[in-house]
């Protein structure tokens, strides 16, 4: 199971962030075929968002045949191979780096300090 996290600073709508996290979770192997996702209500409460936000994300993924909702049982990952394009991966990495660097720079870290720390984490 993945841990969902929403970031209001990105400007990306919350439902889109949920969709992206599910797709990236599948592509990375963190979400497996047949795995059950939290209910709409449970995820909305956990993320502190409106039920409709989660319902919209789940519905869009159902339309794309990525999720399957079984009445009374829950929402499950469908048997579908997700491929994240190189362009989409690059864009996501750029978003992550922009957020990370703005936080690090606001604390006064230099680019060399950041690079050194990242290299230690390999």
How would you describe this structure to a colleague?
The protein has helices spanning 14-28, 40-47, 51-63, 86-106, 111-120, and strands spanning 36-37, 67-70, 74-77. With 122 residues, the chain is mostly helical. A hairpin with a 3-residue loop joins strand 2 (67-70) and strand 3. The relative contact order is 0.13. The model has no long low-confidence stretch (mean pLDDT 90).
- Cα distance, first to last residue? 24 Å
User: In one word, what is the shape?
Assistant: elongated
Mind describing the biggest β-sheet? 3 strands, antiparallel
Number of helices: 5
Percent helix? 40-55%
**Strand segment tally:** 3
Order of helices and strands: HEHHEEHH
Radius of gyration, taken over Cα atoms and rounded to an integer in Å: 17 Å
What structural category arises from helix and sheet content?
mainly alpha
